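SEQUENCE, STRUCTURE TOKENS:
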Amino acid sequence: MTLPQTVSYTPDEPTWSNRLPWRLDPARSVLLVHDMQRYFTRVFAPDCVAYTDAVRHCAVLLDAARRAGVPVVYTAQPGDQPAHARGLLADRWGPGIGADPDQTDIVTALAPRPGETVLTKHRYSAFARTDLAERVRAAGRDQLMVCGIYGHIGIAATATDAFMLDIAPFVAADAVADFSAADHTRALHHVAATCGVVLTTADAVSAWTPPSAWDDWLATRLGRLLDDEAAGAALVAEPSRSVFDAGLDSVRAFDLLDELADLGVDVDFVDFATSGSTGFLLTRIARAGVATP
């Protein structure tokens, strides 16, 4: 059996429940971009929401990690592996990835930069037959932030192995794609229940980004628009929460975006309404490169 064809799905609403109290720390973590090679990504239909969201959020994580000095590691399987090297993978998935760069290359949007590690990977887990654990420890780190594909296979296996090696795994729910919504959800539930912490890209970016004047500005503006100073501060402190669930209506949302535009940060209302989080706004602010409000 080979890879599925034309995968297209929208992820389920978040339902995971973390059992572990860990917090992502920029001084302790490594970002792992898992298996984002063209051979593996070609299974996704062009309109697959889960995949396009995963690529976009992986790019956000890469940007945040690089800004924070968090080491970045990629996994990539070698092309044209002989049968003895593939072992039991050949029984399950056939001959696997070919040698053509159109199959082996990391997708362009997430391409490694000079100096970033591309780890040759042979099995589901990024730790199997590699020196990933040694690299993490040599960097003085003990946390692994994982994004990429496929959730219920390599990402779940990597997170489980990290836990067994006393490296705390974190998985970005919206920076992962899989064969189906059910597989995607199953992978997140497995990690949250047994071995790691599931979070959103906005949560990770917030953890890797030191508090800034923009945090204070956004907390103050939201507090004013909601007529509740504490609510504004809470929304910035928990960047994955929806400002609309907290009571912000569309009229006041437009007022907020107009203020941001006046300061040099252009945010499309539809994009904001889709995400609805302060993490989304802070990421757009960081991308705009406007130093202070």
